[in-house]
Amino acid sequence: MDDEDRRCPSSVVRLRVNGTPYRLRLDNRTTLLDTLREHLDLTGAKKGCDHGQCGACTVLVDGRRSNSCLLLAVALDGASVTTVEGLADGERLHPVQEAFLHRDAFQCGYCTPGQLCSAVGVLAEAAAGMPSAVTPAGQRAVLDGAEIRERMSGNLCRCGAYPHIVRAVQDAAGAAR
After folding, report:
1. Residues 6+ apart with CB under 8 A from 171
2. Which of 117, 123, 127, 133 has CA 20 to 30 A from 171's CA?
3. What is the 3-state secondary structure (H, E, C) of 104-170?
4. Could you give the strand order of the β-sheet that contains 10-17, starting from the edge strand earlier in sequence?
5. What are phi and psi of 174, to 5 degrees?
């Protein structure tokens, strides 16, 4: 073992990414975002702020939306990860992707992968009955504008496409019913 190995311990990490199993030897400090981008060539999730504040790196980990820049890959051994590249079913777009296209819910597109993954997570959370800060106590969430804005608030869009994003998520919620 040389000095570099002593300074940078590594571990074998097993991940299922977009349905494909991977076995990777990674430095213990490697984030999920860097694993996806640098080791698996999945560049949909973006490195925006690298501090969990912008949501550009949002992916689904075991079905829950997560900021991949904040997660160490070694802590996710055995997890299932879905990135924007894994949302479509072959050539058939996910209903959220279709709604974003129909509503023109993007401008520059930098935040779009994170917005899409977050929107898929929002639909799953609402379907599971998970409340948000604006869900009335004791009631099931209704994905109206206020509810969607609250749930998507962790995903920033520098271009300001928020009205289109909210309508796209509403459309996708209606399609999911």
Report:
1. 99, 102, 103
2. 133
3. CCCCCCCCHHHHHHHHHHHHHHHHCCCCCCCCCCCCCCCCCHHHHHHHCCCCCCCCCCHHHHHHHHH
4. 20-27, 10-17, 80-82, 58-61, 64-67
5. -65, -40
The pairing of beta strand 64-67 with beta strand 58-61: antiparallel
Query: What's the structural domain count of the chain?
Result: 2
Note whether residue 5 is domain-resident: no
Residue 98: CB atoms within 10 Å? 16
Counted residue by residue, the chain has a size of 177
pLDDT digits (tens, 9 = 90+) for 63-117: 999 999 999 999 999 999 999 999 999 999 999 999 999 999 999 999 999 999 9
